[in-house]
């Protein structure tokens, strides 16, 4: 299968809370608007503590589908790789990211040091050596501003300046107050403030006829002063969005420690884009030209009072700043430099539709938002896609998944949202629950679904989102056949949902899990499968598609996703026994397997979704007994040997496989490490045994419950719409 080639890969530590993440977010949004595909490659910095979550700006990009998160176990391919934050490379990387790019740019967006210590933050020579070791000698080094270039005069590339879309930074409509409001925002760092209390009060005066608002870092200033002036309002970092904060001030004033080498001044750029005049130090003139107002801390108050008294001039200064920012730092300038490096914008005809924006017309349809868990395989996601492909046009499916299989759903034609799982984000349970709740609430607000169908255990964040959005009908798609003694805590959360949809289970009589005693009010359907029998390819055509000879029996091994336990160990023995019996042997590799199969002599690896489409081209399948593959093999009459996975948390694969064997519908190997494996396979390769299994499967007579499930969910959606929710 041909690897996906992204237009731009951005490599950084996405946990930075300030300008690094804001700059990345602006570039990604510009790229998405131009139809460019972006992938984010996360590399932890040695100076960032463990357990930090991704910046909300980065999480928003992933939530909105504007960028993908690179899988650490797979190679990322891109036309252009952009690396940000040199401090990532102050120590050897524990694991070098697997990135292949036509060109690479290292954006130097932080100075190595300051006036007091030129190497306070990193040694440039060491960073350069590591970057070139990992990504090759042809890396283009691009400073983010003239200030960085002055510290590193050997850099030859043009500056990789910041990007901002002024259309997203609309000026506020706040009525002009009686008193001018001075403000600033940014992350908490002592070097971001004037060094002395005297200079601090010159820049941010303690005057009853002036107001001062601070978003982030105010505790540093008040600690330096030993008090909080009565005219100051201090807000913690993140209490407001920067745009909302800027709508509440009249002047943006920024002065910092004289030793600091400010890389660019992202917060200044944002203020100017939002139509707020910026008063800053003269050293910023190479970046902001005549669009800003330059002063020392002592000159701030006269400038503020003079401009406040001349309303017409105030408006001219604000308008000039916005025009300057749009012309020099707008998305067009960023897209131009991408084009110069071989990653130009795609023609409009080849662009994917962008996400809905605030202010867009309300959708004509009310979709069903379908949330799947991060399963080891694709079972959760496939069940939802099985239902989703059968929903009516009035209530189409929107897939939201924590699984790497998000790309599979996208290729199957679904509008797909990716929510990084707790494992991917590497965050604590409580933080991840808050993230999940926030993202779900956003998706509900964005897509306005009539129903949310959850094929997942009810995590805290899901339950909290259901409580926060009660106008939506919440349904738990709850597969049965859980292992005995597991999951009671999840069953207890069933009342958080408006309904429970239970897919059918052929082995229901052997079900000893907790769902058995919790069937009151549960809506049941037949087993849910992605495809119907008529969707399967004819045998000869299936064999051709799989690269199989027509005149020899063929077997498929599909023992799972490879993400739960070691599935490779019995594969060689199975393949050897089948080859001895004259079979062609295929190994099915999951679309989301984190480790490829080791080479197995005499076999071929297939990576196809859905593999069930080609089952009629096979004479035998040796399979794990997960819900989806189990029911597909029985329903489509394919002779099967089930090798249950005993390491699953909830799914009772052993009970399911035993029941099928007892019913004469399949064979079962409970202990693949024993000689039971060879004994059962010796039976399975006999044509008469396979004929008996196929005949018994044909007698079972169960159908596909996906259509009935879709009708039921569509009915709930229509009822929700009629009620005016």
TrEMBL record:
Ranges of biased composition (kind: Low complexity): 343-356
Entries under Pfam families matching the protein: Glyco_tran_28_C
InterPro entries noted in UniProt: Glyco_trans_28_C
The organism's place on the tree of life at top rank: Bacteria
GO MF term list: hexosyltransferase activity
Gene3D superfamilies in UniProt: Glycogen Phosphorylase B
Region annotation Disordered: where it falls in the sequence: 343-364
SUPFAM superfamilies named in the record: UDP-Glycosyltransferase/glycogen phosphorylase
Every Glycosyl transferase family 28 C-terminal domain range: 611-692
Protein name per its UniProtKB record: Antifreeze protein, type I
Organism: Actinoplanes cyaneus
């Amino acid at each position: 299968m041909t690897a996906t080639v992204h237009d731009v890969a951005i490599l950084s530590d996405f946990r930075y809370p300030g300008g690094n993440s804001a700059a990345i977010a602006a570039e990604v949004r510009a790229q998405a608007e131009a139809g460019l595909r972006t992938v984010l490659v996360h590399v932890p910095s040695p100076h960032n503590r463990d357990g930090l979550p991704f910046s909300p700006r980065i999480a928003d990009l992933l939530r909105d589908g504007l960028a993908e998160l690179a899988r650490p176990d797979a190679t990322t391919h891109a036309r252009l790789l952009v690396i940000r934050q040199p401090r990532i490379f102050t120590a050897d990387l524990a694991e070098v990211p697997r990135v292949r790019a036509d060109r690479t740019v290292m954006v130097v967006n932080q100075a190595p040091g300051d006036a007091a210590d030129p190497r306070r933050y990193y040694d440039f020579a060491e960073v350069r050596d590591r970057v070139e070791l990992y990504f090759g000698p042809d890396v283009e080094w691009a400073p983010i501003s003239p200030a960085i270039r002055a510290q590193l005069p050997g850099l030859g590339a043009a500056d990789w300046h910041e990007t901002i879309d002024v259309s997203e930074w609309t000026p506020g409509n706040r009525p002009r107050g009686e008193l001018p409001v001075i403000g600033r925002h940014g992350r908490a760092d002592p070097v971001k403030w004037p060094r002395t209390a005297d200079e601090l009060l010159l820049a941010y005066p303690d005057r009853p006829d002036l107001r001062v608002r601070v978003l982030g870092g105010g505790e540093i200033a008040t600690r330096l002063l030993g008090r909080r002036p009565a005219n100051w309002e201090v807000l913690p970092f993140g209490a407001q969005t920067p745009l909302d904060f800027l709508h509440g001030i009249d002047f943006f004033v920024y002065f910092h420690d004289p030793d600091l080498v400010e890389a660019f001044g992202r917060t200044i750029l944002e203020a100017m884009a939002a139509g707020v005049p910026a008063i800053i130090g003269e050293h910023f003139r190479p970046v902001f030209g005549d669009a800003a107002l330059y002063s020392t801390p002592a000159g701030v108050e006269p400038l503020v009072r003079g401009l406040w008294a001349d309303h017409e001039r105030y408006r001219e200064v604000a308008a000039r700043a916005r025009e300057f920012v749009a012309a020099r730092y707008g998305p067009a300038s960023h897209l131009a430099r991408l084009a110069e490096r071989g990653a130009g914008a795609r023609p409009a005809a080849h662009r994917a539709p962008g996400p809905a924006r605030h202010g867009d017309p309300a959708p004509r349809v009310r979709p069903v938002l379908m949330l799947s868990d991060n399963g080891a395989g694709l079972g959760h996601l496939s069940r939802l896609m099985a239902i989703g492909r059968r929903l009516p046009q009035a209530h189409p499916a929107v897939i939201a998944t924590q699984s790497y299989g998000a790309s599979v759903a996208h290729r199957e034609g679904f509008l797909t949202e990716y929510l990084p799982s707790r494992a991917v984000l590497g965050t604590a349970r409580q933080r991840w629950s808050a993230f999940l709740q926030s993202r779900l609430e956003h998706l509900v607000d964005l897509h306005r679904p009539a129903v949310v169908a959850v094929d997942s255990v009810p995590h805290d964040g899901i339950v909290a989102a259901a409580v926060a959005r009660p106008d939506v009908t919440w349904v738990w798609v709850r597969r049965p056949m859980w292992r005995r003694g597991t999951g009671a805590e999840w069953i207890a959360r069933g009342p958080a949902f408006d309904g429970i949809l239970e897919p059918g289970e052929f082995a229901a009589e052997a079900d000893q899990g907790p769902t058995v005693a919790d069937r009151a009010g549960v809506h049941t359907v037949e087993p849910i499968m992605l495809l119907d029998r008529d969707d399967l390819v004819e045998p000869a055509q299936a064999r051709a598609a799989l690269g199989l000879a027509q005149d020899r029996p063929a077997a498929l091994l599909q023992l799972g996703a490879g993400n739960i336990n070691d599935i490779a160990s019995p594969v060689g023995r199975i393949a050897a026994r089948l080859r001895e019996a004259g079979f062609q042997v295929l190994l099915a590799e999951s679309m989301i397997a984190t480790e490829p199969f080791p080479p197995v002599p005499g076999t071929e690896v297939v990576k196809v979704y859905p593999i069930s489409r080609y089952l009629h081209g096979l004479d035998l399948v040796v399979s794990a007994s997960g819900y989806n593959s189990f029911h597909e093999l029985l329903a489509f009459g394919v002779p099967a040997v089930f090798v249950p996975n005993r390491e699953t948390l909830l799914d009772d694969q052993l009970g399911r496989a035993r029941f099928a064997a007892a019913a004469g519908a399949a064979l079962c190997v409970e202990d693949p490490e024993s000689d039971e494996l060879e004994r059962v396979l010796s039976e399975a390769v006999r044509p008469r045994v396979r004929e008996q299994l196929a005949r018994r499967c044909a007698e079972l007579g169960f159908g596909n419950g996906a259509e009935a499930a879709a009708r039921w969910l569509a009915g709930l959606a229509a009822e929700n719409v009629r009620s005016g929710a």
